C-alpha cells in the first residue's frame, strides 16, 4: 500500500468529509483572505516579498553565504589568514551535507581579462565523496538576496570591469582530475598568479592572488591530490602524475579516460586549443566571449556524437538479431497457468550495467556526456546561490543558459537557490530577462493572481447554491488537497494553512484554465511548487507554467497520456527489441502499467526531496525535453531480465511497477536514462516525435 | 504460503468514497484517514480461508476520477470479483452507481461477482442514502449488498470474504473454467491433488516444472 510505504502518516481527528476544508464555509472564506497574497507594492522590494516565508525546513545544507561586498583591500600577507583549511578557517558557517565539504576558500582572487580590467571572485576547493573540485566564481555584480533574488548594483557605481561579462570567466566546480597541471608565476611586479592547464590542453586565464596566498593554496591542494613538480619547469606542478601509474588515484584514471583517453579518431586536432587561443590575453578569446563551459561542452559534445555513431551501428546490429525466444524458464512459465507471476524472486540482484542487454557494450562509452559522471564518479556539488550569481550578468540576465541547464541536470540546485532558479527553469522568468524586468513581471503577475483569485472568492453562498458545476469542482479540490503530501511536515496537521493555500492555488487555476478544470494529479504537481516558493502567487504562476507543458496529460480524451505511453513504447522498441517482443506476447504494449510515472513525473515513486531534485533535472532539459520517458524506459530496461524471467503478465507488470515506489535509486535511474538518451540519439527523439510528442 | 485459489478483485466507485481505506482496513486492519489520493491503481493482497481452503485475494484499488476511466478499464481485465463502493453521506456517489455498473459489465468478464458497498456507515448523522435504497439498487441489479465502515471496520471482513464465498460457490457449481485465467481465478498448488506447494520467492522455473 502506498500510504504504508511513504513514511509516517498523520492522523486527523476523524475521517470526516466536510464540503469545505473548514467545517464552516463562512469562516473558511474569511480566513482565506487573511493569508492572501502579498500586496503588489510590497513585491517591488525584493526583500519583503517573502513575507510569511518560513525558513526551509527541508534545507539539507544552507548555501554558501553570498559573497560580501567586494572587498579588495588586501590586508593579509603571503600565507596569511585568507586561506582556510577545515580546521582553522574563518568559514565555519559554511554548512555542508555529509559528504560535501569546502576545504579551502580564498577571497579576492582576480582574473584580468585585459591589463586594465579586473574581475574579482572567490576561489574554493570543494571535496565531495572524496573527489576534489576547484571553483572560481566571480562575485555577483549586484546583491544576491538569501532567496536568490538578484538586484543589480545601481548604474552610477561603475563595475570593476565595465566592458566584460564576468560570467564568461567563471570556473564552475571542476574535478581536479580534469586539471593536468598548475603553473605558478611570480612576476617582478604585481601579484602572484596561478595558471590551470586542463587535461584537454586548454589553459584557463591566470588567477591572480594579489595579496599572496599561493603557497597556502598549493598546500591545501596537496592535502587532497598528488602534485608532482615538473623536472624541467620547477614552477609547474603536474596533477596526479607520478612516475608510477599505479599510484594514480582511481578517480583520476576514470575521469582522465573520459577527457583524454577517448577522443574521436581524427578529431584530435579539435581537442587541442586552437593555436594562439590563450585566456586572459588581449586577443580574440575575451572579446568573443568564450566561455569555459562552452569550450568544455564542445569537446564533450564531440565525444558524445562519436559515442552516438558507435551506438547507432550497435543498435542497428541489435535490431538485426532475431527477436530471441525469451529465456527458457520464461517461456516454460508462460504455459504455466499456475505461476503467480507477480511474485518476483525478491533476491533478484539490482541490475548492473551488464543488464543493459543489447547496448551494454556501449553504455560505459556513453559516459562522457558529462551529465552523469563517468562510472559512478559523483557529480559536482549542487548549484549554490553563489554559483547562481555567477551565471548572472551585471543586469541580472542569465548568461550561459546551456551551461546552467547542464549544471542543474548534473547536480541539481541547493534548496536555498531553488526558489529563484526554478522560476527560470519553468519558464515563468525568461532566461534573458533583467532583474529589473523580473521585478516588474512579478509585481504585475501578483496583481493578476489577485484578480483571478477574486473571481471565485466573490462567488457568494447564494450564487454557489445555483452553481453546481462550481460546487462540484470545489469539493473535488477540497477532497484532494486533504490527501496530498500530508506526511510532509509542511502540509501536515489538521487545519494546516499551507493545505488551504494549495487549495486556493488549485481553485484559481481551475478558473484560469476553465476548460481544463481540476483533475487528479494536479495537486501532486502543485504541492512541491508551493513548498519551494512559500508564496501563493509565485506557486500559482510556476504551476501555470508547469501545466503549460503537462496540460495534455490531463485532457479527458486521454490523447496526451496516450502519446506519452506511445512514446515510451517507441523508445523501448528502439532500445530493447527483445523486451518489446516479450511485452507484445504478454499483450502489454499499452504500457498502462507506467501510467502514474508519466502522469505526475515519478512524484509517487521517490521521496519528496528526491522529487525536487528529479523535477529540476527534467525542467533543465539539458539532454531532452522528455527525460521522464527515458527514465521510465530506464527502469524497465534495468529490470528486463527479472521481468522476462518471471514472465510477468499485465497484472504482474502493473504490480511490479507500483512496487518500485520507494525502492528505486534515483541517481542510478537518472544516469541510466541519460545513457539511454545518448544511445538513442536522434532516433530516440524522432521516435518520440512520431508518437505525437512535441519536439 | 500455499493457497488453493487466487482471486483477483477490483474496487471501483467515485473518488473519495473510501476505496483505499477499505483496502487498508482489510489488508492491514487499520484506518488511516490521511493518506495520498490514488493515482492510477494501487495493489493489496491477503490470504483468507473458506471451508478450510486457503484463498489468496489479489486486490486492485482504482482511482475514481472520470478522466482516469479509460485507463481504469484496462484493470478490469480478468477480475473475478468487484467491490462497487459509494459513500452513504454523498448522494451523488450513489447516483453514479449505474454508470459504474455499466462500465463493469462492458469491460469485465460477465461472471464477475459484484458486491455493492455503502461505506462510511459510522457517519449516521450525515447519512444521505438509506439502507433500503442500497438494498433496492442491489436487488434490481442482482448484486450482493453490505454497508461498511472502513473507520470502525464494521462489515469490512464480510465484504471481501462474502464476495470470495460467492466466487467459490460458482467454482463448485462449475460456472467457471478455472483453467481459463480470464475469469480472474488461478488454481494454486494447495488445492490438493498436485501435492505441491509454492512459496513466494521460489523461482518460476521451479514452479513450471510442476506444471500440469
Ligand atoms: N468516517 C469515515 N470516513 C471514511 C471512511 N472511509 C474513508 N473515509 C474518509 O474518506 C476519505 C477518502 O477515502 P479514500 O479511501 O481515500 O477514498 P477513495 O478515493 O475511494 O480511495 C479518507 O480521507 C477518509 O478520511 C469511513 O468508513 N468512515
Ligand atoms: Mg483511493
UniProtKB/TrEMBL annotation, chain A:
Entry's Pfam families? PH_RBD, RabGAP-TBC
What GO cellular-component annotations does this UniProt entry give?
cytoplasm
- Which ranges carry the Rab-GAP TBC domain? 412-622
Q: Which domain of life is it from?
A: Eukaryota
Question: Is Phosphoprotein a UniProt keyword of this protein?
Answer: yes
Where is this gene product found? Cytoplasm
Q: Where is this region: Disordered?
A: 32-97, 364-385
Q: Which PROSITE patterns match?
A: TBC_RABGAP
SMART domains hit by this protein: TBC
Record keywords: Cytoplasm, GTPase activation, Phosphoprotein
* Low complexity bias locations: 42-53
- GO molecular function, a single term: GTPase activator activity
What is the predominant subcellular site recorded for this chain? cytoplasm
Record's protein name: Rab-GAP TBC domain-containing protein
Lineage of the native species? Answer: Eukaryota, Viridiplantae, Chlorophyta, core chlorophytes, Trebouxiophyceae
UniProtKB/TrEMBL annotation, chain B:
Which SMART domains does this UniProt record tie to the protein? RAB, RAN, RAS, RHO
Q: Which UniProt keywords apply?
A: GTP-binding, Lipoprotein, Membrane, Nucleotide-binding, Prenylation, Protein transport, Transport
Q: How does it sit in the membrane?
A: Lipid-anchor
Pfam families, alphabetically? Ras (PF00071)
Compartment(s) of residence = Cell membrane
Gene Ontology BP, a term: protein transport
Q: What GO molecular function annotations does the UniProt record carry, in alphabetical order?
A: GTP binding; GTPase activity
Which GO CC terms are listed, alphabetically? plasma membrane
CDD domains per the UniProt record, alphabetical? Rab2 (cd01866)
Q: Which Gene3D superfamilies match?
A: P-loop containing nucleotide triphosphate hydrolases
- Source organism superkingdom: Eukaryota
PANTHER family attached here? DRAB11-RELATED
* Primary role: Protein transport. Probably involved in vesicular traffic.
Against NCBIfam families, the record matches this protein to: small_GTP
Family, per the entry?
Belongs to the small GTPase superfamily. Rab family.
Q: What is this protein called?
A: Uncharacterized protein
Source organism per entry reads Elliptochloris bilobata
Amino acid at each position: 500500500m502506498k500510504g504504508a510505504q511513504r513514511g509516517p502518516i498523520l492522523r486527523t481527528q476523524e475521517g470526516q468529509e466536510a464540503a469545505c476544508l473548514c467545517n464552516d464555509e463562512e469562516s473558511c472564506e474569511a480566513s482565506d483572505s487573511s493569508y492572501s497574497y502579498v500586496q503588489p507594492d510590497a513585491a517591488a522590494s525584493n526583500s519583503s516579498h517573502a513575507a510569511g516565508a518560513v525558513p526551509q525546513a527541508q534545507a539539507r545544507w544552507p548555501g554558501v553565504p553570498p559573497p560580501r561586498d567586494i572587498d579588495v583591500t588586501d590586508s593579509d600577507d603571503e600565507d596569511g589568514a585568507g586561506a582556510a583549511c577545515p580546521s582553522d578557517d574563518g568559514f565555519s558557517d559554511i554548512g555542508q551535507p555529509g559528504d560535501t565539504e569546502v576545504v579551502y576558500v580564498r577571497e579576492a582572487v582576480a582574473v584580468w581579462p585585459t591589463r586594465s580590467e579586473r574581475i574579482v571572485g572567490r576561489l574554493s576547493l570543494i571535496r565531495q565523496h572524496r573527489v576534489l573540485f576547484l571553483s572560481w566564481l566571480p562575485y555577483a555584480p549586484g546583491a544576491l538576496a538569501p532567496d536568490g533574488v538578484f538586484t543589480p548594483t545601481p548604474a552610477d557605481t561603475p563595475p570593476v570591469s565595465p566592458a566584460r561579462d564576468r560570467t564568461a570567466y567563471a570556473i564552475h566546480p571542476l574535478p581536479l582530475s580534469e586539471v593536468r597541471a598548475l603553473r605558478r608565476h611570480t612576476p617582478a611586479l604585481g601579484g602572484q598568479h596561478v595558471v590551470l592547464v586542463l587535461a584537454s590542453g586548454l589553459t584557463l586565464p591566470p588567477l591572480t592572488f594579489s595579496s599572496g596566498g599561493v603557497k597556502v593554496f598549493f598546500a591545501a591542494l596537496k592535502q587532497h591530490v598528488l602534485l608532482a613538480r615538473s623536472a624541467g619547469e620547477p614552477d609547474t606542478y603536474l596533477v596526479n602524475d607520478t612516475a608510477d601509474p599505479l599510484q594514480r588515484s582511481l578517480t583520476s584514471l576514470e575521469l582522465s579516460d573520459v577527457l583524454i583517453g577517448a577522443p574521436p579518431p581524427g578529431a584530435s586536432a579539435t581537442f587541442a586549443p586552437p593555436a594562439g587561443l590563450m585566456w586572459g590575453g588581449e586577443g580574440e578569446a575575451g572579446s568573443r566571449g568564450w566561455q569555459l563551459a562552452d569550450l568544455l561542452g564542445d569537446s564533450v559534445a564531440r565525444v558524445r556524437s562519436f559515442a552516438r555513431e558507435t551506438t547507432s551501428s550497435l543498435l542497428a546490429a541489435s535490431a538485426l538479431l532475431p527477436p530471441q525466444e525469451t529465456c527458457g524458464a520464461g517461456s516454460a512459465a508462460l504455459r504455466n497457468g499456475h505461476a503467480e507471476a507477480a511474485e518476483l524472486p525478491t533476491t533478484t540482484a539490482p541490475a548492473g550495467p551488464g543488464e543493459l542487454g543489447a547496448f551494454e557494450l556501449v553504455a560505459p562509452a556513453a559516459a562522457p556526456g558529462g551529465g552523469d559522471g563517468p562510472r559512478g564518479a559523483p557529480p559536482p556539488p549542487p548549484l549554490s546561490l553563489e554559483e547562481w550569481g555567477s551565471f548572472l550578468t551585471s543586469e541580472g540576465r542569465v548568461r550561459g543558459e546551456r551551461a546552467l541547464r547542464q549544471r542543474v541536470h548534473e547536480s541539481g540546485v541547493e534548496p536555498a537557490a531553488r526558489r529563484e532558479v526554478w522560476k527560470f527553469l519553468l519558464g515563468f522568468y525568461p532566461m534573458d530577462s533583467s532583474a529589473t524586468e523580473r521585478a516588474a513581471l512579478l509585481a504585475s503577475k501578483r496583481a493578476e493572481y489577485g484578480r483571478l483569485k477574486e473571481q471565485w472568492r466573490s462567488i457568494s453562498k447564494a450564487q454557489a447554491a445555483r452553481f453546481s458545476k462550481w460546487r462540484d469542482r470545489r469539493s473535488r479540490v477540497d477532497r484532494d488537497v486533504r490527501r496530498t503530501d500530508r506526511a510532509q511536515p509542511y502540509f501536515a496537521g489538521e487545519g494546516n494553512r499551507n493545505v488551504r493555500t494549495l487549495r486556493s492555488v488549485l481553485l484559481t487555476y481551475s478558473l484560469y484554465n476553465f476548460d481544463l478544470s481540476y483533475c487528479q494529479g494536479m495537486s501532486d504537481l502543485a504541492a512541491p511548487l508551493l513548498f519551494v516558493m512559500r508564496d501563493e502567487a509565485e506557486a500559482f504562476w510556476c504551476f501555470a507554467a508547469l501545466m503549460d507543458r503537462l496540460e495534455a496529460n490531463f485532457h479527458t480524451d486521454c490523447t496526451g497520456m496516450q502519446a506519452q505511453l506511445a512514446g515510451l513504447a517507441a523508445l523501448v522498441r528502439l532500445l530493447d527489441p527483445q523486451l518489446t517482443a516479450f511485452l507484445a506476447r504478454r499483450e502489454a504494449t499499452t504500457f498502462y502499467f507506467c501510467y502514474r510515472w508519466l502522469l505526475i513525473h515519478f512524484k509517487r515513486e521517490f521521496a519528496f526531496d528526491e522529487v525536487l531534485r528529479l523535477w529540476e533535472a527534467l525542467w533543465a532539459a539539458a539532454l531532452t525535453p522528455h527525460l521522464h520517458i527515458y527514465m521510465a524506459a530506464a527502469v524497465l530496461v534495468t529490470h528486463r531480465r527479472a521481468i522476462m524471467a518471471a514472465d510477468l503478465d499485465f497484472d504482474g507488470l502493473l504490480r511490479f511497477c507500483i512496487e518500485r515506489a520507494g525502492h528505486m535509486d534515483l541517481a542510478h535511474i537518472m544516469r541510466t536514462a541519460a545513457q539511454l538518451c545518448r544511445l538513442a540519439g536522434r532516433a530516440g527523439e524522432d521516435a518520440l516525435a512520431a508518437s505525437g510528442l512535441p519536439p | 504460503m500455499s493457497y488453493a485459489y487466487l482471486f483477483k478483485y477490483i474496487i471501483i466507485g467515485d473518488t473519495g468514497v473510501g476505496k483505499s481505506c477499505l483496502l487498508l482496513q482489510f489488508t492491514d486492519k487499520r484506518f488511516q484517514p490521511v493518506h495520498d489520493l490514488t493515482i492510477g491503481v494501487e495493489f493489496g493482497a491477503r490470504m483468507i480461508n473458506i471451508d478450510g481452503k486457503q484463498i489468496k485475494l489479489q486486490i486492485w484499488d482504482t482511482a475514481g476520477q472520470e478522466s482516469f476511466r479509460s485507463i481504469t478499464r484496462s484493470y478490469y481485465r480478468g477480475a473475478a470479483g468487484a467491490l462497487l463502493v459509494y459513500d452513504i453521506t454523498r448522494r451523488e456517489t450513489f447516483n453514479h452507481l449505474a454508470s459504474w455498473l455499466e462500465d463493469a459489465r462492458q469491460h469485465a468478464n460477465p461472471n464477475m461477482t459484484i458486491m455493492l458497498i455503502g461505506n462510511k456507515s459510522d457517519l449516521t448523522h450525515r447519512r444521505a442514502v438509506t439502507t433500503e435504497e442500497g438494498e433496492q439498487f442491489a436487488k434490481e441489479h442482482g448484486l450482493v449488498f453490505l454497508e461498511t465502515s472502513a473507520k470502525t471496520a464494521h462489515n469490512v471482513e464480510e465484504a471481501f470474504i462474502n464476495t470470495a464465498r460467492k466466487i467459490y460457490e460458482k467454482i463448485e457449481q462449475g460456472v467457471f473454467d478455472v483453467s481459463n485465467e480470464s475469469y480472474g481465478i488461478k488454481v494454486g498448488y494447495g488445492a490438493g491433488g498436485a501435492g505441491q506447494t509454492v512459496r513466494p520467492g521460489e523461482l518460476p522455473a521451479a514452479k513450471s516444472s510442476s506444471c500440469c
